[in-house]
């Protein structure tokens, strides 16, 4: 176990903190092996969930030092330094090795067991050292999350892409630290339905009361939710339909602003990449564009119409080559910011970055922008376009120097002024595919004007046709799976205030991929719904939607 020494770094010693900390590189591993062997050999159960195997701090114990074998272990963060990056990679390898070790021990003792680990750490920053390879030790991804329905949708998509089946966990109370304040029943039901719509299992976490008393009403409520959940389970199947994929990159779970910091000063903080992925996902969801969230391992043989790279600052060489191959074979990529290792694909040579907010000045007639006037784009990258690339917009500076407080054109804002030679938007062709690059990350700014431009950029890359389209307010989302002889569509009504107001008049159009429709049934009662087929799409009028409407479209080859 670790103790806090004067240096502020963990060393082997007495337990500290609420939970106690142990290093998987130490003799603790032998203890874990004996415990897992004992459990698997002496008790009957179907599955095992191994929780909280990660480093809450960077460890410098004797066991870690002996395994490092490369001199002094780095203690200052520097993402531009090869030695620091090698150290972080080694931490991730050690943790991955430990997870696989635990699974192997259990499977050897009882091959029939299913094993999963706490995968929520995959979405946390670099300190925990949990990369996407973490799931190699899992029969299915599983983890607990507490940020609500928006985060849940992203996680469900990521877990689905990583392992197919998965288990989403959250607490019965409003968070893990609250022992009595129950979540509203409507929220519990909505979170169960979000997992269900993504073909996932749902688990509620409850704390044991020291008195031994049980909140009977809470469990009766949970039982009612799970009984309703159960009615839909037999229909689940197929592959998630997604035209656009947002890459969640394990290597980018960091922040260059950490450079020069002592490791003890970096906690489990949100990082730019996860914030940009979340904001971009929100735009695609609200605009009803079929999308998913993928990891680097999903890049091989990817067949999405477009892949989105937002906040991807430390792409690995392997991932860069997978994306290069994807575009070379006809794929499309939307990217923003630095996007290291992909300059040849995106059509530029990176120079530096502006230190203040700048504008996009579009060329006349560019379809991505609704008007030919400057658009706020935040801090943009300075690049030089390659000869093969086409510049669609340039960067425009504010009218006055933001650092000079003696000169201003407006008391609060700094209007656009001088157009520069630096590209703001670049279109490029690479092999059979094409790319669109933005110097600023407009996809994650959260404002309608920038979101409109991002959606038009995606339409530019995809041709503007999608596998399904939902005619409904932004609070609704359609999640569809294709099982060959049927398409399963779940329409969620995710409103910030519950109970939700029912949605009326929603319509779903689904690309049949050359098949014909036999029936459209509202589940679970299997009530027939009216539909029409036009231009290869089945168009279905949906009933009022409270939280969930699930529809099965039975199809056959023509």
Describe the structure.
There is one protein chain. Mean pLDDT is 93; it is low at 1-15. The strands form 7 sheets. Strands 10-9-11-12-19-18-17-14-15 form a 9-stranded mixed beta sheet, with helices on both faces. Helix content is 25%, strand content 27%. It contains 10 helices and 28 strands. Strand 21 and strand 22 form a beta hairpin. With 558 residues, the chain is of the alpha/beta class. The relative contact order is 0.09. It has helices spanning 28-42, 62-68, 82-109, 149-163, 185-197, 216-233, 272-286, 317-328, 343-346, 448-462; strands at residues 2-4, 10-12, 47-50, 114-117, 141-144, 166-171, 201-205, 239-240, 244-247, 291-294, 306-309, 332-336, 348-353, 358-362, 375-378, 381-385, 390-398, 416-430, 433-438, 468-471, 476-482, 486-493, 507-511, 515-523, 527-528, 531-534, 537-541, 548-557. It folds into 3 domains: 18-237, Alpha-Beta Barrel (TIM Barrel), CATH 3.20.20; 244-462, Class I glutamine amidotransferase (GATase) domain (Rossmann fold); 468-557, Golgi alpha-mannosidase II (Immunoglobulin-like), CATH 2.60.40.1180.
CATH-assigned fold name of the largest domain: TIM Barrel
List low-confidence stretches. Answer: 1-15
Largest sheet: 9 strands, mixed
Main sheet: which strands, in order across?
10-9-11-12-19-18-17-14-15
Number of domains: 3
Instruction: Write down how many β-strands occur, each being a DSSP E stretch of 2 or more residues.
Output: 28
Gyration radius from CA atoms, angstroms: 25 Å
| Annotation field: number of helices | 10
Per CATH, the architecture of the largest domain is Alpha-Beta Barrel
| CATH level-4 homologous superfamily of the largest domain | Glycosidases
Let me know the average pLDDT: 93
Query: CATH class of the largest domain, anyone?
Result: Alpha Beta
Helical coverage, percent range: 25-40%
Report the structural category: alpha/beta
